[in-house]
Each structure stands twice: as C-alpha cells, then as structure tokens.
Amino acid sequence: MKKYIWLLAIGLTINALQAQEVSDAVRYSQDNLNGTARFRAMSGAFGALGGDLSSLNVNPAGSAIFANNQMGLTLTNFSNKNNSNYFGTTNSTKNNSIDLNQAGAVFVFENNAKPNWSKVTIGINYENANNFTNDFFSSGTNRNNTVADYFLFYANRGNNGAPVPQQFVNTEQGESISDLYSFLGNNLPDSQFPGLSGYDAQQAFLGYQAFIIDAVNENNPNSPFSSNVPAANYFHQNAVFNTGYNGKLTFNIATSYKDKFYFGLNLNSHFTDYIRSTRFTERNDAPVTNDFRVSQIQFDNDLNTYGTGFSFQIGAIAKVTKELRFGLAHESSTWYRLTDELSQSVVAISRNSSETLPADVVNPNVINVYQPYKLQTPSKTTVSLAYVFGKKGLISVDYAMRNFSSTAFKPKNDAFFMGLNNAMSNTLDNTGEVRVGGEYKIKALSLRAGYRYEQSPYKNTEIMGDLTGYSAGLGYNFGSTKLDLSYANATRNTQQGFFNQGLIDGARIANINNNVSLTLLFEL
Question: 101, 76 in Cβ contact below 8 A?
Fold first, then answer.
C-alpha cells in the first residue's frame, strides 16, 4: 500500500470532481424575489414600468424611466419555516436573519445636443439575489432502508463496476485514517484503477473503517462488501443547516428615444458562498445476538461551495399610448466558476448480547478541495405589460420563461458531467413565471399589492412543487426622501432526499417564506 501514498501535511486534499447533483444546479439557477420594498410589494412586476432600482434586474431599460438621480438601500428580515414529514413523523424548524438586501443608485444625464435621445442613465445596484439561510430537521422510522446502503453503494460500484479493492479501505498496513483518506482523494482515478473515483472510494473507506460495512471474504482483496447493520426498524434524524448568499452586482446603462422608447443594458457580476452542514443519525431496534452488529450511526458532512459568475441583460420598454406600456427583456445564462470543499466524519457503535463496544470514530480531519468546475444556468426572457392610470395608480403584469433543462455543468466532455447533464435534460423542464402588481396613490401615500406564481423546474413536481406568493406594502413620499415598507409570503413543497445514493428516502418539506423589507430612498 505504501507505494501508492503521498501526503499533504496541512490536512487538505486536492480531489477530482465530487458527486454534484441536479439539485446543486437548480440552487444556483433560481433567484428569490429580493430587492426594494416597492419592488417586493408588487411581486416584482416591473418589466414594463421601470423607475425602481430593482426593476433593473427585470428590464435594464427601466433606469431610463427615472427623472432624477436616486440612491436607495433596503434592509430585509428573512423568515423561513419548514414543516417536514418523514414516514408520518412531523417536525417544524424556523429561521430568522436580517440582511442589507439591496443598495444602489441611478444617475440621470440630460442629452440636450440630441433632443430625440433626451437622456442617458447610468446605474449600479447590488442585491442579495438568493439568501441561503434555511435550516430543517426531519425524523421518523424507516422500516426498510438504512444508511449502510449508502456506503455499500459506493463500496460495490468500484473499478468499472467491481468492488473497491480492500487495499483502499484498510489501514492495517500502517497508514493512518487521515493518510489513507487523503491518498484516495489525491490519487484516484489513476492508470491502474481508471474507473475508481476518489470520492467513491472515500465513501467506502468511511463505512469500512466504522465497521458499518465489511468485506464478504477478507482473504479476497477484490471481495464485494456486505452490511453490518441488521434488518430492523431504523429511527432516522437528519439536521440540515444552510447559510450563505448569492450576490449580484449590476452595472447598467440606458437611454430613451423621444421619451417613448427606452433601451438598456446590464453587465452583472455574481458571487456566491454556500455552506451546508448536515448531521444524519440512525438507531435500530434489532434484537442483540452473539455477533457484533452496528446499532447506532452518526454521519456528518460539511460542504462549502464558493465562486463567481457573469451574465448580461438587454431590454426595451415602449409607451404604446400615454397609459399603456410594453416591455421585453432577455437575461443571458450565468456562467459560474465554482469550487467545492467537503469534510466528513462517521461515528458508529456496535454491540452484541454481552457488551457494547467503544464507538468507532472515523474523523480524517481532512478538507477535500475539489477541482474548480463551471456551471451554465438557463437564460430567461420576460414579456411585460403595464397600464398607468395617470398619477392615481397602475397595474403591471410580467411573464418570464426559462428552460431549466438547458442547465449544464462543464467541461461537457467530462464523463461524469455528460451523465449529469443528460440527467438534467431529462429531469428538468421549461417553466413559466407570472408576476402581477398594482399600486394606488392617495396624495403622498402609496398602497401596493402583488401576486406571484412560479412553475417547478422539475418535470416531477413531487421533487419540487410550484411556488405561490403574495405581497403587500405601502410607501410615503416626503419629497426628496421616500420610505417604503413591504411584506411578502411564498410557499413551496419539496422532497428533501437525505442522500443521492443508497438511502434515497427523504422528508417532504413544506416551506413557508415570510419577508419584511424597509427601503429608504433619496433623490440627489
């Protein structure tokens, strides 16, 4: 075994690509309805209206609607409630966080030299496009499947479908747990074992070292593996802690022609930092025998994904009549470059009819730093109509279209990504999103409300259901200063699988999202 090993003393291993999932691509392809309080109060239906800092993210031509320089910032309270149901057992989890959700400014430059092109506007706006803070807890009794199935899946898939060789999971020849775990991440696949992924072998290693799985024939180095967890009822607990954000910084330029046609362009810089910590525990009620069998398991995973991206937007707004406005905008794909870091540990307790052994603790204290990869999210096209009732109010409707099945991990010629991209093409779907918003003014006071409906990106809506949202708010104009307040509610059901292989059972999660936003605007 020694001939295979080289070590990194600082506890980091530079690994090949880990097992990305369809859900990872969906996470970075979706945006929450964030922005100014006025924007949120009207459910983001601003594609044909403009005149709001967050409207730039729907249609970049919207900044040309501004008559004066404006600066604003928004503070938002994000509140999530998750109700889970796992084999009939229900749990509820709540989260609250406060964030500076939006900050930006638009500057208006009159163009007297060319009266037909009456002005040019330049804007810059930051928004937290997606707040990842969202925890949930699930528990219940599974009468069929154990987490040992997860470790068995990876142990028995091995090199070109054969089991993982025992030399890659056995530390008896002198290597420490950290050394061997690092070796697997750094050196696989190689020419001798071309079909054996480092990530796959690491999962088999964790299960073997914790005695959760064992070789059927210890004398055969290529023996398949079997489970040391007896048939029983399995009591499962799964705690998931999500934090992080997906930020978007927009640089905008727009112009107007005869104050009837407005054109705009956005260049967007994206940056993301997502952290997910999970703790899965299992207990079984199997009768004890003379043989040692595993009775309890704890499996911890800590994932950090970070990176940057770029996208652009073009858009136009036309005043068809004095009251009627039409908008059309297109947002390109976002091209991300992402890096994953993962650390893992397993604890298992075994017992027989006479004693309980000390816990098998498998904690390599190693951070897997995976090779950077690219993700291309789907583009989006938005068609909008708005009707303005003079200075009394308005009503606006947006319809956005996006093809999630075009989402792609890159490099596309990578064997793993080819399979994953095919899976996304078959699993994900074309979607539509409807946003409706209205505003009514009573002197300096504005009353607002909105409705939002977003189709699931999955063909199977059991994985993720459609989203329905409602919003309301008010604003007061003090002259050169405006203060806006909004409340937004959105609900969506999802199926949260605990693992992507082996134990694929998961909890049904009903997510309720409530947000309160406060925006302060200044005319400069």
Answer: yes
pLDDT tens figures, 43-102: 999 999 999 999 999 999 999 999 999 999 999 999 999 999 999 999 999 999 999 999
What are the residues whose beta carbons fall under 8 Å from the beta carbon of 371, sequence distance 6 or more? Answer: 14, 15, 16, 17
CB 241: neighbour CB atoms within 10 A? Answer: 17
**Partners of 126 in the beta sheet?**
103, 249
What is this structure's pTM?
Answer: 0.92
Beta-ladder partners of 490: 469, 513
Cα–Cα distances (Å) from 194 to 198, 205, 422, in that order, read 10, 18, 22
Q: Which domain holds residue 249?
A: 2-523
Q: Are the CB atoms for 44 and 75 separated by under 8 Å?
A: no
Question: Rounded distance, CA 85 to CA 351, Å?
Answer: 31
Q: What does the pLDDT look like over 351-360, one tens digit per residue?
A: 999 999 999 9
Domain with 344 in it: what CATH number? 2.40.160.60
The total number of structural domains in the chain stands at 1
Please report, for residues 134, 153, 229, 238, 490, the alpha-carbon distance to residue 138 in angstroms, rounded to integers and kept in the order given.
Answer: 14, 23, 21, 5, 21
**Separation of CA 322 from chain center:** 42
The answer to whether the beta carbons of residues 168 and 158 sit under 8 Å apart is no
Residue 26, both tokens: 């969906």
CA gap 409, 417 in Å, rounded: 6
Q: Are 50 and 507 in contact (CB under 8 A)?
A: no
Half-sphere exposure for 402 (CA within 13 Å, toward CB): 23
Are the CB atoms for 118 and 160 separated by under 8 Å?
A: no
Give the amino acid at 66. Answer: F
Residue that the structure tokens 């070109």 belong to? 160
- State the DSSP H helix or E strand holding residue 55, giving kind and residue range, or none if neither: none
